[in-house]
């Protein structure tokens, strides 16, 4: 007898309608990745005897863990070039050695001076190795090789949310063919002035004086926004049913990974998925080269009853399609016959034209030959007449008479 299957989710009274049990799946996935990497290293025979634990941790740190969300319908209708940030209990980018490139609105000098000021945290300032504006990005990094060099020089790319939608066209497939280093949006402009919770419209003259609209925020606010952006999970929504989000790394503990998976799942489903949990088909976690482990599967594969076809409806559609197929085949046959007839008529007409042209040409050639023959005969007669000597009628001289 087959064993009874255990439920992947349990309903709870408060909070989310479902409780995700990801701890068991996280343990299994992390153990599988570690054993697979050790087996691959032993099989290759290239494992260094001098390799220490820190180097092994660094190698495992580069292995990301992904959360795969599958919905019953497209999560959005149109592609969005501005990614979504989701706060995580455990930050993804905590290494102090990873460098940051900040892409800002013009003028870039404002943000360079702000980061170089004493009010900006020194630990974060040392990680920001480049600040570049949009205009300079267009001029200096407009070639493929220069973009590849910029891509390789930095680990994290942040972009002002005012210019984030322009970057796919400026940076191209070098940055956007994968999700590893896509620019993360960050809000670094000064907040709009408010009175009683409402924004105050600035004068048009003041807005024209600043090329980038509102200027930069203060150093503390910019540092906080950059720190939040680095620590958050980035989601790129597309008009499809599949969405992948990086939620952790293979060297993490299962508890940390499970906490991030739960936070991303709840935030993504509750805010962006149509029909929320009723619109979700499945949730999986996986590594780059592993199978996907399910952590939640829907009982129903549709949202509304109208999305499901009964047997009678399916038969009606099949019968209608059969009729259409027969009709289309008949129409195709008629069209083929008509096209063949048209081709034959064109061919016959072309042949007739060619034959008539040949007859005319033959007649012209014959007439030309006759004309040339006649001219040749006349010329020959003239030549013969000129060459025949004429008789001369000279008076005969008499003999002299002798006396």
UniProtKB/TrEMBL annotation:
Task: Give the Basic residues compositional bias ranges.
Answer: 391-403
Family annotation (InterPro entries): Ribosomal_uL1-like, Ribosomal_uL1/biogenesis, Ribosomal_uL1_3-a/b-sand
Start and end residues of each stretch annotated as Disordered: 370-403
Among Gene3D superfamilies, the record links this protein to: 3.40.50.790
Residue ranges that the Swiss-Prot or TrEMBL entry lists as coiled coil: none
Q: Where is the composition biased (Basic and acidic residues)?
A: 370-390
Q: What is the superkingdom listed in this entry's lineage?
A: Eukaryota
Q: What is this protein called?
A: Electron transfer flavoprotein alpha-subunit
Q: Which organism is it from?
A: Marssonina brunnea f. sp. multigermtubi (strain MB_m1)
- Please name the taxonomic classification of the source: Eukaryota, Fungi, Dikarya, Ascomycota, Pezizomycotina
């Amino acid at each position: 007898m087959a064993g009874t299957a255990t439920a992947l989710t349990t309903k709870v009274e408060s909070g989310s309608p479902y409780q995700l049990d990801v701890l068991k799946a996280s343990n299994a996935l992390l153990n599988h990745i570690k054993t697979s990497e050790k087996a691959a290293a032993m099989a290759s025979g290239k494992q260094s005897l001098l390799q220490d634990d820190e180097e092994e941790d660094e190698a495992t740190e580069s292995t990301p863990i992904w959360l795969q969300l599958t919905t019953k319908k497209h999560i959005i209708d149109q592609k969005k070039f501005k990614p979504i940030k989701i706060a995580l209990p455990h930050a993804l980018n905590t290494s102090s050695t990873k460098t940051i490139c900040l892409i800002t609105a013009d003028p870039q000098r404002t943000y360079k001076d702000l980061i170089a000021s004493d009010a900006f945290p020194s630990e974060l300032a040392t990680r920001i190795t480049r600040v570049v504006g949009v205009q300079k990005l267009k001029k200096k990094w407009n070639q493929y090789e220069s973009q590849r060099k910029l891509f390789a020089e930095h680990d994290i790319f942040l972009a002002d949310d005012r210019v984030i939608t322009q970057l796919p066209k400026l940076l191209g497939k070098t940055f956007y063919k994968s999700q590893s280093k896509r620019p993360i949006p960050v809000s670094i402009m000064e907040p709009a002035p408010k009175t009683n919770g409402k924004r105050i419209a600035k004068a048009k003259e003041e807005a024209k004086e600043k090329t980038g609209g509102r200027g930069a925020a203060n150093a503390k606010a910019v540092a906080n926004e950059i720190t939040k952006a680095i620590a958050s999970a980035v989601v790129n929504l597309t008009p499809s049913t599949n969405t992948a989000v990086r939620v952790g790394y293979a060297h993490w503990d299962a508890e940390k990974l499970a906490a991030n998976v739960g936070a991303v799942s709840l935030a993504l489903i509750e805010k962006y998925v149509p029909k929320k949990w009723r619109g979700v088909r499945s949730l999986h976690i996986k590594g780059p080269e592993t199978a996907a482990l399910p952590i939640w599967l829907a009982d129903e594969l549709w949202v509304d009853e109208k999305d499901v076809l009964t047997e009678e409806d399916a038969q009606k559609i099949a019968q209608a399609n059969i009729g259409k197929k027969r009709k289309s085949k008949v129409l195709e046959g008629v069209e083929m016959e008509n096209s063949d007839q048209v081709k034959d008529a064109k061919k016959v007409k072309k042949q007739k034209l060619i034959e008539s042209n040949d007859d005319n040409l033959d007649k012209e050639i014959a007439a030309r030959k006759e004309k040339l023959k006649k001219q040749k005969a006349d010329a020959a007669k003239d030549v013969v007449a000129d060459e025949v000597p004429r008789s001369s009628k000279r008076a005969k001289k008499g003999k002299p008479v002798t006396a």
